[in-house]
């Protein structure tokens, strides 16, 4: 039931602090990460030479973020594929490869197809999944379960943020086993992850700011989302959320790629959502924002609390709490979910059941 919320999607957006907390709780005990559920021994994990992550839609965006996390924290090369593409190229898998399939439903046909292909190559296969006993979990050696609870809205929200939390836990686990992350660092990272539900709550309390922004922009027919590095996939996710529930055309782009084409789209009618974490790419993204401004684009900045510099540069600013860089995607995605939601509602769209879409896509 909707518990007093107008839509399942809104209810599920608000359930994120609990969903993330439950996912962490299920895998962390006395400051130690327990992932027996993957059914891979430390010895097997140390032998992995390459990781392939496969998924569709929003889960694919989690996969892209997983690549950033795994390469940085676990020093293992990672390839990410849209599941429907994976087996139709010739990915160089073998028994030293680990395939991670990410799926909320565990029933997505394309992802199942990718797993079948990997099985044939004798690769190790684990999944990150929200539905106990689903087809994908049954085809995997082990599963890291997300504990998001049932997700009813077609637009994936809490499943996505719990996938990111699960990926981060897996990275800390693997990095520790490989001797790349010491106990002290692991504890510090876990602490930062454990604070995310509280930070998510802070964002949810500011939802009315996004409702007001939606009032200004719900009649637009195009949107652009820009991000860099680990937040580039969040630009893709923000755009996907908006297009699937509001039917507004939206594109996500790596901000540095703008000058190679999409900058031609910018005029004074185009809202451009820019994700601005305080990391080593900060100056670069600020200059991308200035490129948008000087062509008349309307900048909606999602920035880190305390970054006052942004106020005079952007047209609108929404702040999220400061967190570790690897965790910024979890927080940045929440305002984008809310923005898409309020825009879709104002356009009179059927938010929980957008046209032409099904919750789980069981055909290839
Ligand atoms: O159940 P899955 O995670 O395998 O589903 C994958 C996609 O179909 C799904 O994420 C879809 O893109 C959502 N509608 C996005 O909000």
In short:
The protein has 364 residues and is an alpha/beta fold. The chain has 14 helices and twelve strands. Residues 56-59, 103-105, 108, 111, 154-156, 244, 360-361 line the site of 5-amino-5-deoxy-1-O-phosphono-D-mannitol.
Q: Helix count? A: 14
Q: How far is the N terminus from the C terminus?
A: 31 Å
Give, in spatial order, the strands making up the sheet with the most strands.
4-3-5-6-7
The whole-angstrom Rg is: 20 Å
What report would you give on this structure?
It is a single chain. With 364 residues, this protein is α/β, with parallel strands linked by helices. It contains 14 helices and 12 strands. Strands 4-3-5-6-7 form a 5-stranded parallel β-sheet, with helices on both faces. β3 (50-55), α4 and β4 (78-82) form a beta-alpha-beta unit. α2 (16-25) runs antiparallel to α9 (183-205). The model has no long low-confidence stretch (mean pLDDT 96). 5-amino-5-deoxy-1-O-phosphono-D-mannitol (M6R) binds next to α4.
Features:
single chain; 364 residues; alpha/beta; five-stranded parallel beta sheet; 46% helix; globular; binds 5-amino-5-deoxy-1-O-phosphono-D-mannitol
Present the secondary structure layout:
Blueprint: H1 8-14, H2 16-25, E1 28-29, E2 32-33, H3 42-46, E3 50-55, H4 57-74, E4 78-82, H5 83-86, E5 97-103, H6 109-120, E6 124-129, H7 135-139, E7 142-145, H8 158-177, H9 183-205, H10 207-217, E8 222-227, H11 232-246, E9 249-254, E10 271-276, H12 282-294, E11 298-304, H13 309-313, E12 316-320, H14 328-346
Parallel strand pairs: 3-4, 3-5, 5-6, 6-7, 8-9, 8-10, 10-11, 11-12
Antiparallel strand pairs: 1-2
Bound molecules: 5-amino-5-deoxy-1-O-phosphono-D-mannitol.
